[in-house]
Amino acid sequence: xxxxxxxxxxxxxxxxxxxxxxxxxxxxxxxxxxxxxxxxxxxxxxxxxxxxxxxxxxxxxxxxxxxxxxxxxxxxxxxxxxxxxxxxxxxxxxxxxxxxxxxxxxxxxxxxxxxxxxxxxxxxxxxxxxxxxxxxxxxxxxxxxxxxxxxxxxxxxxxxxxxxxxxxxxxxxxxxxxxxxxxxxxxxxxxxxxxxxxxxxxxxxxxxxxxxxxxxxxxxxxxxxxxxxxxxxxxxxxxxxxxxxxxxxxxxxxxxxxxxxxxxxxxxxxxxxxxxxxxxxxxxxxxxxxxxxxxxxxxxxxxxxxxxxxxxxxxxxxxxxxxxxxxxxxxxxxxxxxxxx
Length: 341
Known about the structure:
By secondary structure, the chain is of the alpha+beta class. 34% of the residues lie in helices and 23% in strands. The protein contains 13 helices and 14 strands. A six-stranded mixed sheet has the order 2-3-10-9-7-6, sandwiched between helices. A six-stranded mixed sheet has the order 4-5-11-12-13-14.
């Protein structure tokens, strides 16, 4: 694990351009949207208990929980960076899962672009023993995933930001790959590290509650252009120093405690069908803590039913007809078991 040194380096300010791949209205720039958020995170590093250093090839490393404590507020801010500056993440009190009295609430101005185009952990980065999934606006700059062809969107930018779910500083080879794929100089790359077992990591993972609903809607072939808005919430899971326990708790927060409402165009029948198919209860693996499910498959992520990754309860509103459909439900008993009550 690398030693991180605090520095006052600031992000470059070159203006990016959004380059839609399909005809239609000009889309907002994710890179421009997060720049002030990243600058604020770096500028308040001491207060937020994060550390900023120069990493491999001169990239900027923001440690939000590897060698420093980080915290809930750092995680909230990182979650908004993951959303490409198009979303708001708040911590709100709730008695829904007492004694776990706080929810992460997420809303966006463009759920498809914010959640799938930025927040989704879709970029696999590996070199030697290192592996991490990349989230954030840097994905749209590299656009290595087929998803960007479907979204009709990619960006060009002189700087780029990625959030990595890792407890290890990435090696030089990973930074070089990001620079090459993004056509960005290494010293203009910002990598924010959020270990799953950290407080910041816990918040930014649970804040994906809306994203997993969008991802599943895409998986069941609902037209993404029909999704016009959405909001979601899920309980803040207590962290654990054990990786498997921490991963299980953050997943369970969404699978058994997540609540999402989507606003869609189209027929009432299509909205009703989407509501039935979206909740985690539609999966064959539903009903057990995620750590138990994962362990039962020999810790092989790809053997887990992909339809499990979705919120516990989903409401879909057909805005052109004024009707809403709700499916799924919460499991506070399983939440308490998973969270260690």
